[in-house]
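Standup notes
- DV: blocked on the single-chain target, sequence here:
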Amino acid sequence: MGLVDGKVAMVTGGASGIGRACAETLAREGAQVVITDIDTDGLTDTLRRIEAAGGSALSLPHDVTDEEAWRGVLDEVQSRCGGLHILVNNAGIGIGGSLLEMSLEDWRRQNAINLDGVFLGTKHGIPIIHRSGGGSIIIMSSVAGLRGSPGLAGYSASKGGVRLFSKSAALECAAAGLNVRVNSVHPGIIDTPIWTKLPSGGLSGGANAIDPEALASATVAHRAGRPQEIADGVLYLASDLSSYVNGSELIIDGGMMAGGGGRSAMQN
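- DV (later): unblocked, structure below
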């Protein structure tokens, strides 16, 4: 018996990195997993990996900034899976650089994915999860959502926003008698493709350039984290092992927030 045996789980941004690790882990622990992303090639690869390991999954292309797309995807999840118990709001991007140089277009694009996408998923996911008998929503934030960082004003704003959004959503569900827990996860420096996907003018170059290797070496762990180490935390929050954990934040950062090491962090 797996920790989420018989549950239906949906993971956004499941084509790579932390999202892929979460999808594979939940499937390995018995969940029927729905993976979504705009990266269809990556989705195909994640689906292949899950099925090769004996898991059950389906993949759906999905733009998390589109409310109609959310309605359509969740309708399909209900139709094909019979309900939903776990929602991992993981999809996100990182656009860095000085706030004095950041365009309004980039600011809005980052918030549309990192914040609006979380709002839409939580808004439309809560009723389905409650009707399915209850469950858990896990929202991927970052240690950049816990403290400010030069060169990451826009990213920190989006990740800090989802941190408090998670707490408010948890309290609202409880007040309404809805059997849905909502928590956030805050990774530190994790070895994922986000570092290679940064747009030009992002975190590379300039006075506020961020060196992920230097940041990782400055943590207590003296290394970057692995996506699986984040997925293990997500599994805990998705399972009944965390039945008394609600409106909380799980920091998985190699000790960055313990008082030393590194001035910023990103994930996804």
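- Follow-up: Residues 8-258 form a domain with the Rossmann fold fold (CATH 3.40.50.720).
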